[in-house]
Amino acid sequence: MRVQNIARALLVLSTAAVWQAAAQTPTWDTSGNSMLKGSYYFRHVYYFLSSAGDGSLYDAASAYGNITFNGGVPGTYSMTLILVEAQSGQVQSGTVNGTYSIAASGYGFLSNPLFTGDYIYGLVNQQGIFAGGDTETSNGYNDMFVAAPVSTTPATAATFKGAYSLALLDLSSGSPLTTVNALLQMNPNGINSTGTVSVNAYLPEYGKIPQSLPAATYIFSNGAGVLTFPNSNSALLVGQYYLYISPDGNFVFGGSRYGYDMFVGVRTGTGAASLGGLYYQAGIDQDASQLNAGYALLDTYYGAIKAASGSVVGHQRQLELLANGGPFDYTYADSYSLNTNGTYSTAAMNYVVGGDGIRIGSGIGPLLGISVALPAPTFSGSGVFLDPTGIVNAASSAPFTARIAPGELLTLYGSNLASSLVIASAIPFPTTLGNVQVTVNGVAAPIYYVSAGQISAIVPYSVTGTIAQVQVNNNGTASNPVTMALGTTAPGVFTVPPGGLGYGAVLHQDGTLVTTKSPAQIGETVSVYLTGLGPVNPTIADGAAGPVDTLSKTTNTITADIDGVAATVTFSGLAPQLAGLYQVNVTIPTGLTAGDNYLGLSGPDAYNSEVLISIAAASTANSTGAGRSFRSVHKRRIR
């Protein structure tokens, strides 16, 4: 069903239809529903790809307005919105009621106001801001949704004052050739003027377009603002843009009144900028690097990043419809060197860290996009406490938003999880260790070790579905249950040293480690050690070692690439004589450059490109890109 059909029915949506959608909601932890409570402003953009296969849009829509959450269980909301839809040219207003479920971590979903049975997935941060999108849609669109609470003392013009950086992505033209990606700087005076607006923009058809725009005027009413840019034939921004602002004024978002764009922004210069800890993220990307070949690639995502000491481990639950056709998990590594003004850049994005530690990103053409990363809440508890954000892949350390998979070795973090450190002394791993048990959907999990703050356990092979509830029992006292998304695969490569960053645990066939001093050779087959590849055949008991005589192979197809060049997988299955460990044998392809290269591993629903592998010798690169993996080539640009 297209957006215009929903638009026509918007004003007659019934409460019965909303509750029909609620009845289909999967079981999910709702203990975090109070994180969304009261009045919020929101903006939601939708993009429908055309059948041309070139990345152009068939249709687009934007919805914006006010949403009120009840903060209870069950979670319900009432939304008053304006809907602008491209194909029909309609502008409508109306009220929609819906439901929502937020876990203790802030991870959850809202029923989609326009599509019954669809959900907006995302996360609530420590300031109560929600950001996400409908990556699991059955209606074939990409989208991004942002909502921020309205202060009990509504914002006024005086709230919007200081230095601001805004990242904007505008797909309103429908053609990737004329997508506008821009990073704006302005200095609103707290009265009615932004001052001169500096614009560093990129349009694929024209390249870089720097502009200096005359001051925009602004007014505030009921806690929301309207920016008005002077009309000009050459200016990239003209007319009215609705602006919503966080209660402390450090975060802004919005878009044009009648367009299908989105901007996110931060106030800068309010203190020393810092980037560290857990962040919740959402964004839109458009890869226009292949327009000469006739197409661009659009994706939207939500997820989390963990930043520390200049390094990032990140996860995105991503929807890319043109090449991949459906959602998948993407886990990656990144690095940063934060300037004193809160800025830094990677190959694909310029970032700005502003007040409250919120980070925004703007794409570096032809790799277009906007992103927002919001500091996560902090969590603690009494008794046996399992951190709701503390269940991660034991190899990759992928943030908790990544799906877990049967057979995956997990690390669980918390407090009072065990009375002392105990390590399993034999294989198969026991399901009770040091008087501690771990269950996943009620099934006892094999345990490798336990300690007061950390447990290592394996997801039982029998766990199926889309939701997993994990719980620890320490000597008869149960922890809080933690809800996780469950997938088919969750590849994570072990690293040396451990932690998910740096060089992968990759061995030559003689059993020695691949290093910078002993790099892999072109044509050589190496063994990669990882976890999270899902079920195997022949099956084994939970916690048992991989068999030696008849190897247990993965039932899921596993593929590999090295720096974007597809590599042949000759074996994927359980590592013989080891528990919780998988092995993938990969033949090093031609077309690589000597030195460090990223190693990528894919399952049917997840892709990991996080670790490095050293390659000995260069060969002539394939200038046409033939044999390259879409996921690896496309995902490298996110960094």
Summarize the structure.
The chain is mainly β. It has 4 domains: 3-149, Lipocalin; 157-375, no CATH class; 385-485, Sandwich (Immunoglobulin-like), CATH 2.60.40; 492-636, no CATH class. It has 3 helices and 45 strands.
Can you describe this structure?
With 639 residues, the chain is mainly beta. The chain folds into four domains: 3-149, Lipocalin (Beta Barrel), CATH 2.40.128; 157-375, no CATH class; 385-485, Immunoglobulin-like, CATH 2.60.40; 492-636, no CATH class. The chain has three helices and 45 strands. The chain has a 16-stranded mixed beta sheet that branches. Strands 12-11-10-9-17-16-15-14-13 form a nine-stranded antiparallel beta sheet, with no helix packed on it. An eight-stranded antiparallel beta barrel has the order 1-2-3-4-5-6-7-8.
* Shape label: globular
Mean pLDDT: 92
Number of helices, where a helix is a run of at least 4 consecutive DSSP H or I residues: 3
Please state roughly what percent of the residues sit in beta strands, choosing from under 5%, 5-15%, 15-25%, 25-35%, 35-45% or over 45%: over 45%
Distance between the termini: 35 Å
> How large, in whole angstroms, is the Cα Rg?
25 Å
- In terms of structural class, how would the helical and strand content be classed? mainly beta
What's the total count of β strands? 45
